């Protein structure tokens, strides 16, 4: 390959650029980003950055020894990708032999509420939480739960409203979701599950059951949508955008079906052989690791399998970790520790085989289980 353009200057884009160079690519490398910022780390935005224990320079993803020899075009989003040619909002076009699509995701909006995805969102929210007395969070997913935790650390009154019967019921299952609900309650959060928020206005959040809950700040954490809209008008035979609008369909090596185009990070739904379907993994570790696999694919090197999805979340000073996949009907057993004490490790099994592990405040045992799931999965 003589030239590669990486579209998206976030974690996956930067990781892909690094991996390309690391795997011997010496051609012309360009990284295009919609935001004006150099690549920054998002996980602290809902944690240390909100509470004030991390500042903006701490968020930088580039390292002093990064020597990518890349041209950076920031603040100029890509608007169209045709065979061998990328068009930017400014009208500039970039021709290249290879493209890495790494445009991430954006927060699903909720009218009247703010969302948290970007540094600019976090700057605003951090400022507001300094003076606000109460926070209401719509949705008890990871970001909502972390914002709730940060706001409690800052001393705010916090209410979380979740339409599902328990927080994080999707990724963790209802049983473990209930454990997480207990964690919030133990830290003084009012957690209301099983009822949706109809609308938010100056009076607060209007719940489906008629209750109106006033709050100084309302944050919605109701999921993210892949940033693929810009590809809609593109002329690319073979590019699979999932029917559900859930990302760019890729093989297990990041290949998109369009020669010379790979996709990675939150915008990509890679084929997951363990599940037999495509899955968008919206987590930090996968964005970095899979960028290296996608770079190999682009360079025509032998593929390497992707690791099991893994994520962590920090809430109330506790590290929550999860690896693997769980689906409805999996059996979950606590193997170590005690959920009531907010320190435990649980394993999910399907047809007797371990498929996932969850840990709260048990980093060491979790690492062992993660390795075990990775290596022998079905026989554990
Ligand atoms: P992004 O980081 O979103 O980067 C994509 C970049 O592409 C963005 O800068 C975007 O502006 C740019 N872009 C978009 N459209 C265009 C376009 N048309 N042209 C050019 N550029 C474009 N994961 C965990 O595992 N643990 C955590 O604790 C955790 N905490 C998180 C907390 C927050 C607040 C957020 C938002 C995410 C968190 N995540 C966490 C998820 C993790 O940060 C993401 O999985 C990761 O950032 C994905 O990287 P990415 O490069 O695919 O996407």
Give your account of this protein's structure:
With 380 residues, the protein is α/β, with parallel strands linked by helices. The chain has 3 domains: 3-107 and 224-299, 3-Layer(bba) Sandwich (FAD/NAD(P)-binding domain); 119-220, FAD/NAD(P)-binding domain (3-Layer(bba) Sandwich), CATH 3.50.50; 317-379, FAD/NAD-linked reductase, C-terminal dimerisation domain (Enolase-like, domain 1, 2-Layer Sandwich). It is built from 8 helices and 26 strands. It has helices at residues 11-22, 48-51, 119-131, 142-153, 169-172, 174-186, 284-299, 363-376; strands at residues 3-7, 28-33, 70-74, 78-82, 85-88, 93-95, 98-101, 105-107, 134-138, 157-162, 190-193, 197-201, 204-207, 212-213, 217-220, 224-226, 240-241, 248-250, 261-263, 268-272, 277-280, 310-315, 318-324, 331-338, 343-350, 353-360. The strands form 7 sheets. A 5-stranded parallel sheet has the order 3-2-1-7-19, covered by helices on one side. Strand 4 and strand 5 (85-88) form a beta hairpin. Helix 1 (11-22) packs across helix 7. The radius of gyration is 21 Å and the shape is globular. Residues 7-13, 32-35, 42-43, 45-46, 77-78, 102-105, 116-117, 143, 227, 230, 265-266, 282-285, 287, 311-313 line the site of flavin-adenine dinucleotide. This is FAD-dependent oxidoreductase. Its cofactor is FAD. InterPro entries: FAD-oxidoreductase/Apoptosis (IPR050446), FAD/NAD-bd_sf (IPR036188), FAD/NAD-binding_dom (IPR023753), FAD/NAD-linked_Rdtase_dimer_sf (IPR016156), Reductase_C (IPR028202). Residues 310-376 form the Reductase C-terminal domain. Residues 3-289 form the FAD/NAD(P)-binding domain.
């Amino acid at each position: 390959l003589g030239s590669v353009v990486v579209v998206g200057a976030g974690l996956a884009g930067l990781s892909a650029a690094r991996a390309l160079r690391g795997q011997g690519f010496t051609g012309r490398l360009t990284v295009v980003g919609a935001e004006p910022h150099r690549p920054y780390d998002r996980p602290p935005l809902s944690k240390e950055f909100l509470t004030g224990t991390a500042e903006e320079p701490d968020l930088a993803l580039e390292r002093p020894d990064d020597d990518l020899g890349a041209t950076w075009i920031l603040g100029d989003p890509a608007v169209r990708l045709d065979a061998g040619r990328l068009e930017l909002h400014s009208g500039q076009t970039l021709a290249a032999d290879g493209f890495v699509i790494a445009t991430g995701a954006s927060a699903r909006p909720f009218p009247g509420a703010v969302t948290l995805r970007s540094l600019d969102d976090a700057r605003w929210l951090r400022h507001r939480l300094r003076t606000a007395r109460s926070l209401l969070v719509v949705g008890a997913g990871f970001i909502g739960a972390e914002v709730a935790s940060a706001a409690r650390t800052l001393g705010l009154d916090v209410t979380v409203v979740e339409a599902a019967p328990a927080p994080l019921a999707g990724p963790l299952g209802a049983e473990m979701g209930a454990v997480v609900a207990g964690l919030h309650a133990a830290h003084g959060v009012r957690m209301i599950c099983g009822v949706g928020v109809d609308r938010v206005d100056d009076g607060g959040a209007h719940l489906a059951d008629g209750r109106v809950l006033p709050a100084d700040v309302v944050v919605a954490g109701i999921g993210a949508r892949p940033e693929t809209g810009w590809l809609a008008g593109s002329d690319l035979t073979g590019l699979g955008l999932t029917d559900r609008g859930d990302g760019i369909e890729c093989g297990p090596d990041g290949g998109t079906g369009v020669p010379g185009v790979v996709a990675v990070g939150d915008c990509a739904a890679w084929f997951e052989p363990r599940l037999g379907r495509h899955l968008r993994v919206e987590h930090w570790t996968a964005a970095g690791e899979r960028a290296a696999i996608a770079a190999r694919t682009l360079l025509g090197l032998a593929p390497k399998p992707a690791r099991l999805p893994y994520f962590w979340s920090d809430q109330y000073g506790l590290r929550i970790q999860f690896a693997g996949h769980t689906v409805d009907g999996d059996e979950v057993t606590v193997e170590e520790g005690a959920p009531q004490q907010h320190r435990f490790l649980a394993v999910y099994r399907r047809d007797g085989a371990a498929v996932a592990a969850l840990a709260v405040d048990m980093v060491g045992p979790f690492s062992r289980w993660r390795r075990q799931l990775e290596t022998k999965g079905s026989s554990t």
